[in-house]
Amino acid sequence: xxxxxxxxxxxxxxxxxxxxxxxxxxxxxxxxxxxxxxxxxxxxxxxxxxxxxxxxxxxxxxxxxxxxxxxxxxxxxxxxxxxxxxxxxxxxxxxxxxxxxxxxxxxxxxxxxxxxxxxxxxxxxxxxxxxxxxxxxxxxxxxxxxxxxxxxxxxxxxxxxxxxxxxxxxxxxxxxxxxxxxxxxxxxxxxxxxxxxxxxxxxxxxxxxxxxxxxxxxxxxxxxxxxxxxxxxxxxxxxxxxxxxxxxxxxxxxxxxxxxxxxxxxxxxxxxxxxxxxxxxxxxxxxxxxxxxxxxxxxxxxxxxxxxxxxxxxxxxxxxxxxxxxxxxxxxxxxxxxxxxxxxxxxxxxxxxxxxxxxxxxxxxxxxxxxxxxxxxxxxxxxxxxxxxxxxxxxxxxxxxxxxxxxxxxxxxxxxxxxxxxxxxxxxxxxxxxxxxxxxxxxxxxxxxxxxxxxxxxxxxxxxxxxxxxxxxxxxxxxxxxxxxxxxxxxxxxxxxxxxxxxxxxxxxxxxxxxxxxxxxxxxxxxxxxxxxxxxxxxxxxxxx
Length: 545
Known about the structure:
Blueprint: E1 3-6, E2 9-12, H1 13-34, E3 55-56, E4 91-95, H2 97-104, E5 112-118, E6 124-130, E7 147-153, E8 159-162, E9 169-175, E10 181-187, E11 189-195, E12 200-208, E13 216-219, E14 225-230, E15 233-238, E16 244-249, E17 259-260, E18 266-270, E19 278-282, E20 288-292, E21 298-303, E22 309-314, E23 319-325, E24 331-339, E25 342-347, E26 353-358, E27 369-373, E28 378-382, E29 392-394, E30 400-404, E31 409-413, H3 418-434, H4 438-444, H5 449-457, H6 465-475, E32 483-492, E33 498-505, E34 521-527, E35 533-535
Antiparallel strand pairs: 1-2, 3-32, 4-31, 5-6, 6-7, 7-8, 9-10, 10-11, 11-12, 13-14, 14-15, 15-16, 17-18, 18-19, 19-20, 21-22, 22-23, 23-24, 25-26, 26-27, 27-28, 29-30, 30-31, 32-33, 33-34, 34-35
């Protein structure tokens, strides 16, 4: 196994390369999205391979959506859990970078996120990392970067606690099931229970400030036990009294294990650093239940919600998702597909769906997150994302989930409030264009500086929105009256605006391709000073002829 060596730490090459690829992909897509119309590497994260734009609306490709005006939505979507008939309706509803940037006075891209956690009740998000985008420890003899650890209100994005851990590296984060406490591990090694209501440390379970390692922690579903792996050892404590219950040889490979089963009766742990052996223990007497060898470079491993299966995946090209029987350790098949560079796996809370985040197919940049029927081992579709997440955490009720794109963290749920209003603005704008009502369309359109420069190059007065849109539609390669086929993706980005990915049906009945050959076109929307929504960009087919 190739490695990168930093001060007192060995970093697996797969994790280093994974972080590089993800940030590079993010930057490429952001630049593409922000480019004028035709006119960091992230340092190694020592935590889990778990993860700026928005969310999804996936419709059957055989369905055409007529652009028809409708009333601006005023009600919030009824709560519904993520499942077979709803997964495509979830959208990116909250971003957390702005609040962290405001506290630290730094741009998120210049920082590093080492881990993020979502409370099972959906109330809180915890995010920890370094104030500089550095490799290895936040602080060393070569550089000094402060660490940060914040707890945010998941609904508003506001920081409710900034935990005073500034001279460490954040290693692992997990909330108790009631959302009242955060258990975290740092390097140099300390494992701490933080009381959120009291804003103070309740107990330090373990301290080893000489060893510079990165513990991975887990907590049992009933909050009675806390497990951690570091220094080739699995340690398990009683949460209430802090008594050490078990001490067993173990290893760290990725950040997914140790993990308790949903009923708390089993605990899975790696026993080799290369991920090629996993042990399952009975948490009653700590006897060994089963063991299996999933293959070298395995970083991803997790229990199915019913506790019957454990799924694993290697990092690398032509990777498979393997399934194992927990009680016997016997192989139980695979999804039956080969993936390029699997970033993460996640079950829906009911266990029906398995999400597979991987490198998107070439030319399909928005399709890196597949949704599978786990029982049938069949793909159902994709959740469209401009950036493929490498961390997914659900709330217990399945009504929301956290996507980690590190250093950007987002919460997804069914659309509500501004997300619905932004979507309606897009539909109203396209309807006005289709009907030739350029005055109504102009009321919804606020061109960017790049757009204004382009319009001026055509001799147009950008202040006369009606005339500009009439001219643009008149010289567009395709008519503005064509049908909207799908609204694939929508949601909130870090600057508060919303991005939508759209497809259209061309005049000949085929799916529209723009001048660059893209079939997915984007539109950006933001709230104006009066509280309404305005369109900031036009679909690319409207530029040039």
